[in-house]
Amino acid sequence: MEVVILDSYEQISKKAAKEVSNLIRNKPNCVLGLATGSTPLGLYQELIRMHKEEGLDFSKISTFNLDEYYGIPPAHPQSYYAFMHENFFNHINVQPERIYLPSGTATDVNAFCQWYEEEIKRLGGIDLQILGIGRDGHIAFNEPGSALGSRTRIKTLTRETVEDNARFFGSVEDVPRYAITMGVGTIQEAKQIILIASGENKAEIIAKAIEGPVTAQVTGSVLQLHAQTVVYLDEAAASKLERYDYYKWVFENKPKL
Ligand code: PGA
Q1: How many Å apart are CA 15 and CA 6, to the nearest integer?
Q2: Rounded to an integer, what distance in angstroms lies between the CA atom of residue 104 and that of residue 254?
Q3: Backbone angles phi, psi at 193, to 5 degrees
């Protein structure tokens, strides 16, 4: 696991965007795994800028989003479908038929989840997965206790997640209690993973996920088992890492390898 610590949120967003754009240029029909939340917004903004100013071409890529609230339709302003279109898809030239998001209205949830997994496989697997991390350590909506081998399925959100996301819904009561989410095992199959975290309120969980034991209680910790994960942190999110100096040292010396 490579840990890259930069001064600001803007810098980590740009660095992560560079990685994504390099992949798209090298493999125009690549499959991206995408995340919602506040964290990847800077990355999406930079990719939109690259599309508009540098002609970065998204016309052949496919995208799979990690998760979606269950019980709200795509047209709901707080659906992840709406979030992704508003903040990313509407501003680039991705083809609508190559955009995949879990359905928040599937009637046969198990059949839908199985289909989602099969589509990922049919397209050759996820080349690069973008991740944020929740304060409870979740990646996607894999809340503490999620099996490390889990696949796409419906999950009950924790009270903490519901409270964290109430800021978008206006009140805690309006936040859905369930989500359809890729499993930890699904995410682990991505060929490459980028985890981004910023701000002091992520420092504690980042230290646990990167330096603590691999445990289902912090599902982000499973990334320690993944061979191609890079974690991009701003100084605040990195502030509780014990081996902070070493990560900086590795980064400074990398160009010399
Ligand atoms: P955030 O959410 O980017 O809004 O902090 C991250 C997450 O819950 O995965």
Answers
A1: 9
A2: 43
A3: -130, 140
Q: CB under 8 Å to 203, separation ≥6 — which residues?
A: 236, 237, 238, 239, 240
Residue 190 CA to ligand 1 centre (angstroms): 19
Among residues 230, 202, 237, the alpha carbon closest in space to that of 17 is found at 230
Bridge partners of 220, per DSSP, are none
**Tens digits of per-residue pLDDT, 81-119?**
999 999 999 999 999 999 999 999 999 999 999 999 999
Q: Domains of the chain, with CATH numbers?
A: 2-252 (3.40.50.1360)
How remote is the CA of residue 247 from the centroid of ligand 1, in Å?
A: 23
136 is annotated as an active-site residue: yes
Tell how strand 2-6 and strand 229-234 pair up: parallel
pLDDT at 49 over 70: yes
Q: Which two tokens stand for residue 4?
A: 């890259």
